[in-house]
Amino acid sequence: MSDRERILGRVRRALADVTPDERPYEQAVSRDYLREHGERTPERTAELLAENLADYRAVVHRCTEAGLPALIGRLLADRKAASVLVPAGLDEGWLAATDVTRVPDRPESTPFDLDRADSVLTACAVAVAETGTIVLDGGPGQGRRRISLVPDHHICVVRVPGQVVSSVPQALERLDPVRPLTWISGPSATSDIELDRVEGVHGPRTLEVILLG
Q1: Which of 3-17, 134-148, 196-210 has the largest mean confidence?
Q2: SS3 annotation, the chain
Q3: Nearest to 161 by CA among 38, 37, 48, 34
Q4: Is residue 25 included in any domain, yes or no?
Q5: Domain hosting residue 113, numbered range
Q6: What is the average pLDDT value for the chain, to the nearest integer?
Q7: Across-strand partners of 134?
Q8: How confident is the model at residue 35 (pLDDT cuts 50, 70, 90)?
């Protein structure tokens, strides 16, 4: 018996007691949980997002559309970045105030190529205030998952209030489950048994979030 036949046999045995009239998963699972914890104005929701991002040690900035290019230019200059990864579909105006070398997100780029980029600049799909989480789905201006994991410095732009929701259930309603979803809660970090925190383990050591509104 092959491994494939063995696995399929286990699946068939597991499904043996499923009746033909059993309700689909979407109907069988109760969805009566809280959609958000308390009621907040859009302004307070954005404040909660900023607070929770900061709790995760992300660096939070606020600016208007007009001030965005100058802010991005300053953040790259502060890092002494000589290059920035740019995903397809990113607004070119965001980098208008800097002459840092643009590195396009190419399918043939190796992890070593991506690691040579000093920073990466992306948009996002949605941000969750209650958990301080930013979600990328590979859409325009977001690129493939690996560009937000390999470079050591990630600048992410979140439009406020349009891309900010209170809770994870509200975020899931906006997301397509077949897309490559990357959920980011602060910079990459881990701790050993003595709770010594180490950052930059499996993603960027520094996450800077710009709340644009």
Answers
A1: 134-148
A2: CCHHHHHHHHHHHHCCCCCCCCCCHHHHCCCCCCCCCCCCCHHHHHHHHHHHHHHCCCEEEEECCCCHHHHHHHHHHHCCCCEEEECCCCCHHHHCCCCCEEEECCCCCCHHHHHCCCEEEECCCEEECCCCEEEECCCCCCCCHHHHCCCCEEEEEEECCCCEECCHHHHHHHCCCCCCCEEECCCCEEECCCCCEEECCCCCCEEEEEEEC
A3: 48
A4: no
A5: 38-212
A6: 91
A7: 127, 184
A8: confident
Does this model's pTM top 0.90?
no
Structural domain count of the chain: 1
Residue 211's closest CA among 171, 141, 163? 163
In a domain, residue 178? The reply is yes
Q: Give dist(CA 204, CA 201) in Å, integer.
A: 8
Asked if residue 191 belongs to a domain, the reply is yes
CATH code for the domain of 110: 3.40.50.10420
Token output for 118 = 């000093």
CA distance linking residue 124 with residue 148, whole number of Å: 11
In a domain, 31, yes or no: no
Answer yes or no: are the C-beta atoms of 47 and 166 closer than 8 Å.
no
Higher pLDDT, 47 or 111: 47
Give the residue with greater pLDDT, 134 vs 111. 134
